[in-house]
Structures are given as C-alpha cells and as structure tokens.
C-alpha cells in the first residue's frame, strides 16, 4: 500500500512536469514503475500471433470475404497491441523506447495446435528500429508457405492532453496475398492512453479509418471511445463495401460491431449474424511466441540488450531499472557522438528508406493508387513524416550469409 501511494505521488509529480513541456514528449524519461518489460520493437509480433488469421485470405476464393478476413485480423490484433500484451483488467504499461538499430525476431506457428482453425501455418517476424529521431519502427511479417506477407513502418509522436497521453502514428502497413495478386493498405490508428493518474490506465482509439484492397473493396472502421460519464470501452463499428460505391451511405456487404478488446459480431448484408469473434475463446488464443534463447541472440536483439532492464522491471526494482536503462541509453548517445565526429551515417540492417521519386518507387504504384483513394490529409499521414520504409530481401540474405554478424560488437558500444 505504501509503495502504491509512493508510485501515485511520483506519477502526479511526473504529470505535473509533463504539463510544463510543449510538443512531442517521446524523449521524456518515464518513471520506472509504469514501464512494461518489453520494447516497442516487439509490437509487430501481435499481428502474427494468430497464424490462422494472418493466412486466412490466401485460402478464400471470394474477394468480399478476403477483405473481411483481413479486417478480422486487424481488429483481433488490437487488444494485445494497445494493452501491451496485458489483459484489459491489468490496464496498460509503457513499453521501452527502442534504441537505433534494435532488432526483434520471432516466429509463430499453429502446427502443433489440435483445433479446426489450425492451418499448419508459420509466420516469422522481423522488426527493426530504423530511426531514433524521430522514433520509427519498421517490420516484416511473412507466412512463406502460404504466400502472405506484410510490411509496415510507424513514426510516433507523443503529447500530453490533460491527464491522458495521445500517441499519434504516421505510416502504414501493406499486406500482400500472392495467390490473388492482391494488396491491402492498412492504417495505423492513433491511441489515447486514458486515466493515467488512476494507476490503471487504458487505451482508447478514436476516429474513422479505412482498409483498402486492390481488388476494389473497402473496410471502414469507426472507433468510439468511452464517454466521460460512462459507456463501454474500446467500442467500434465497421462495414465492408465496394470502393466504387461512392454514396454517402454505401451498401454494406458485411457489418461488424462490438469491442476490439473483448468480442465483436459480424453480420451479412441482410443483418443476419454470421459470427461472434470472442478474444477470450480458447480457440482464438494467440499461438506461443518462439524466439531463440537470449544466450544465443545477437547483441543487438531486443531481448538480449534489454535483458537486465526487463528483469529489474519484473522485480519492481526501480533503482536497478534506472541503472540498466541508463547504461544502454548513455552508450547509444556516445555511439551517435562518435558517428558524427567520424562523419558516418547509420545503416539499417533489414529495411531501406524509399525516396518519393525515381526508379526506387516503381513497385509502389499499387500502394500509391490506394493512397490516392483517401482524403489528402489522411493519405499524407499514411505516407509518413519520416519517409517510406520497405523490407529489403537482399539485406536479409546478407544477414543470413554473415550468420547474424553486425557492424558493431554491442549496442553498449
């Protein structure tokens, strides 16, 4: 009880300090007791942890149902993403800000699951912090045997709004289904971390977002946050319709409603219930995440570099959290100083920054055609404020051929 009161006092002092800061607060050091024992580079893995959903579109011949499956994948991933892998009752914690060059690898498989939904699929994840100022994370997910892959990048800006924290994202995800030569453009929603001062904060999404398909269908989502005087948390309404249907109220092929953090209902065009997707149903549980043992990981991998910090967070040893976290962050600052002094530029390991013109973006035509269907302001946000980042297969081959060797011996310098 005393510790909790101390934490609350420290949190109030922290919020009072933040109130004096204008603009982006991403660089501000958060108190250790609100930190989660994971880094932001792990977040892309939440898209991959249900292989049966990630690969479902590759096994569906109807394009209307394919975009519905992509929408289900999108919605089903939100709870674990925005509650930072925690339950709704536990509330959220703040993930660690990744350091430049931080890497995260994981794999998810339902091959060993005995269930009607098991597809035998395997999804691998590669994530990298490609920029620190501004903070930008890029990722690549691939179910190689199913011909489904996705890549995304997100630049985040964090601001204080009263006792809530607003995290705005710029960037987008692109999911490709090889069998149907189909591309989906997915938005990255802004999130509002509410009730920070209560000690049990929760995330809310607000606003309208669209998933666009190159096959001519749109999935539109409207997120509704809990009202000040009551109501449910994490609510949404969504519909699937033909993109060419420009009417103010386009004819919905499917409609969805409910809570993205618990369960939602899918209905057809006649209003008949098709499915209730319940996140608490064991058959919808995430597959176990597989990573290499920390002792075998490269020094730049997230779990190894932050291992002592994560351990201190789990033990609630706040002094040790500050010590270990500062050790890595200070080493990174020294590395940046040396790079500037030597005139060197940081080179990313798996991703390439694509310019806005020239031959390098020839493969971006489909994505651009989808972006052009959006409101100009939304299209600009999805393009991103720090360039466009794409996975480079030749860089992955270099990593593989080099057996995971890296240019620097350790992120600690």
Q: Could you please say which CATH topology applies here?
A: Porin
Largest sheet: 15 strands, antiparallel
Quaternary: single chain
Level-2 CATH architecture: Beta Barrel
Based on CA inertia axes, which overall geometry fits?
globular
Q: What is the alpha-carbon Rg in Å? A: 21 Å
GO molecular function: oxysterol binding
Family: Belongs to the OSBP family.
Pfam families: Oxysterol_BP
GO cellular component, one term: cytosol
Summarize the structure.
The chain is 25% helix and 30% strand.
Describe the structure.
- It is a single chain.
- The chain is an alpha+beta fold and 413 residues long.
- It has a single domain (23-406, 409-413), classed as Porin, CATH 2.40.160.120.
- The protein contains nine helices and 19 strands.
- The protein has a 15-stranded antiparallel β-sheet that branches. Strands 1-2 form a two-stranded parallel ribbon. A two-stranded antiparallel sheet has the order 18-19.
- A hairpin with a 2-residue loop joins β6 (148-161) and β7 (164-177).
- α5 (307-314) packs antiparallel against α6.
- It is globular, with a radius of gyration of 21 Å.
- The relative contact order is 0.14.
- The model is unreliable at 1-6 and 356-360 (pLDDT under 50).
- GO terms for molecular function: oxysterol binding.
- Belongs to the OSBP family.
- One of its GO terms (cellular component) is membrane.
- Pfam families: Oxysterol_BP (PF01237).
């Amino acid at each position: 009880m005393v510790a909790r009161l101390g934490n609350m006092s420290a949190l109030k002092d922290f919020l009072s300090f933040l109130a004096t800061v204008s603009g982006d607060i991403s660089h501000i050091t958060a108190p250790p007791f609100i930190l989660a024992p994971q880094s932001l580079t792990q977040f892309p893995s939440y898209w991959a942890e249900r292989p049966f959903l990630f690969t479902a579109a590759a096994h569906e011949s109807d394009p209307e149902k394919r975009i519905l499956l992509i929408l289900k994948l999108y919605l089903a991933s939100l709870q674990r993403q925005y509650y930072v892998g925690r339950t709704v009752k536990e509330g959220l914690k703040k993930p660690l800000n990744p350091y430049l060059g931080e890497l995260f690898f994981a794999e998810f498989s339902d091959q060993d699951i005995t269930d009607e939904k098991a597809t035998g699929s395997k999804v691998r994840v590669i994530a990298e912090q490609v920029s620190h100022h501004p903070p930008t994370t890029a990722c690549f997910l691939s179910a190689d045997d199913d011909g489904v892959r996705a890549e995304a990048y997100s630049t985040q800006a964090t601001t204080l709004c009263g006792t809530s924290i607003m995290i705005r994202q710029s960037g987008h995800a692109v999911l490709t289904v090889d069998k149907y030569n189909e591309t989906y453009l997915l938005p990255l929603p802004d999130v509002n971390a509410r009730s920070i001062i209560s000690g049990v904060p929760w995330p809310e999404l607000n606003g309208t977002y669209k998933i666009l398909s190159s096959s001519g269908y749109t999935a539109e989502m409207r997120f509704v946050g809990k009202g000040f005087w009551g109501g449910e948390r994490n609510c949404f309404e969504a519909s699937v319709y033909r993109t060419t249907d420009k009417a103010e109220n386009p004819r919905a092929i499917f409609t969805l409603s409910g809570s993205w953090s618990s369960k939602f209902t899918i209905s057809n065009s006649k209003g008949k219930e098709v499915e209730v997707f319940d996140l608490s149903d064991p058959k919808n549980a995430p597959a176990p995440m597989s990573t290499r043992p920390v002792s075998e990981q490269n020094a730049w991998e997230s779990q190894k570099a932050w291992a002592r910090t994560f351990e201190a967070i789990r033990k609630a040893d706040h002094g040790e959290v500050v010590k270990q976290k500062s050790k890595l962050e200070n080493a990174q600052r020294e590395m940046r100083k040396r790079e500037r002094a030597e005139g060197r530029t940081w080179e990313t390991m798996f991703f390439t920054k694509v310019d806005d013109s020239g031959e390098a973006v020839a493969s971006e035509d489909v994505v651009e055609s989808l972006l052009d269907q959006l409101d100009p302001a939304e299209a600009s946000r999805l393009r991103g404020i720090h360039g466009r980042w794409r996975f480079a297969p030749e860089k992955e081959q270099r990593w593989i051929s080099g057996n995971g060797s890296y240019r620097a011996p350790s992120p600690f310098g």
